Amino acid sequence: MTDQTTPQAFPLRTIRSFVLRTGRTTAGQAKAFETQGPQYLLPYAPELCRFDTIFQRTAPTVLEIGFGMGEATAQIAAGKPDTNFLCCEVHTPGVGALLKRIEEQHLTNIRILQHDAVEVIDHMLALGSLDGIHIFFPDPWHKKKHNKRRLIQTPLIANLAARLKPGGYLHCATDWQPYAEQILQVLGTEPMLQNTSPDAYAPKPDYRPLTKFENRGIKLGHGVWDLVFKRL
Asked: By C-alpha distance, which of 74, 112, 77, 111 is closest to 91?
């Protein structure tokens, strides 16, 4: 008989917004977890967020999904001190790196959920509660057989669009053209969203910084595509 307390006894989730990868957490990142984690890390709980409570103020709130090592996130938050940023990332080194940046740059408008963004969206975010959503450089899953693992899919975008306020925006960026084309198709067929650019792809908004990784790719001749849609 199967032990009902073991993980094997529960059904496995087949859809996630990420795939865990190994990575080493530095001493500085580990220290940031200890010093900044209690204030800036939020526990996952299947109940709706109260942004005025978790940020201790009333302000426009932007959701970021998958911030990597947090370089762009910290720069955007520093440039928009009057905006709240709720950031989802599952990889521990990246979370530690952003916590370290929060301390170094004295940022107070970021909160982090180290949890699957799909569950956060489904269970923690109220309909019509967000002013913006950022999804920058999600894993492109280059091989065709892996395309189904891409984050940007019709069901997720429908969920995200429903959580935007009217006039709120969804901003995606990718450096992989086939993925940009898929994102454009998915966003373009969501009835709650409208493209802000008449040319399909948008100019890079001023608030999105040019990261070292992106700048290196541009120097190698790689393109970058920004897509900005608004909630009707």
From this structure: 112
